Fold:
Amino acid sequence: MNIAKPAALFLAATALLAGSTVAATAADTPDGTRVTSTPDGIRVNSLQQTADQVLTGHPKALKSTADEVKYDGLTLTRAPKSKLGAQDLACDYGHLCMVVRGTKFDFYKCQTWTVSNWTGDGPFTNNQTPGTVARFYNQDGSVRWTSTAYEAGTASWDPIWSLRPC
Structure:
């Protein structure tokens, strides 16, 4: 039984709950994925950690690599390091895309997504079918703001607690 993954998840969860950071180093594996190792040698996928941190209460990813995490209805990737505006945010037709804290979220399934640790400002593109309304909610469940497709711009993610792309 391989205990490295459960141990890595436990370490990541402990660090997140404590609000601390752990020094880490990155390396490529034989299959080409990029992983991070903690000082104890526990390997973790930092994009997966981000996904676990911001997508509370959702099933685990269907597929996870160092560059992409796929859920049923959502894909997460790292956003480019350069300053990204809404006009630069690639978003397929039928999708709602945004960048939050350096991670690109590409939603394509109509459901409510509970999120946490969304802070700062970032670009968004609502490229769903014309007239589709995406809703962003406060902690108490009230609507904070909406976006009607097609729309692109910059949004404040402080505080978004959940969203519904359609």
In short: The chain has a mean pLDDT of 72. The first strand starts at residue 25 and ends at 28. The CA atoms of residues 92 and 127 lie 7 Å apart. The helical segments are 4-18, 46-54.
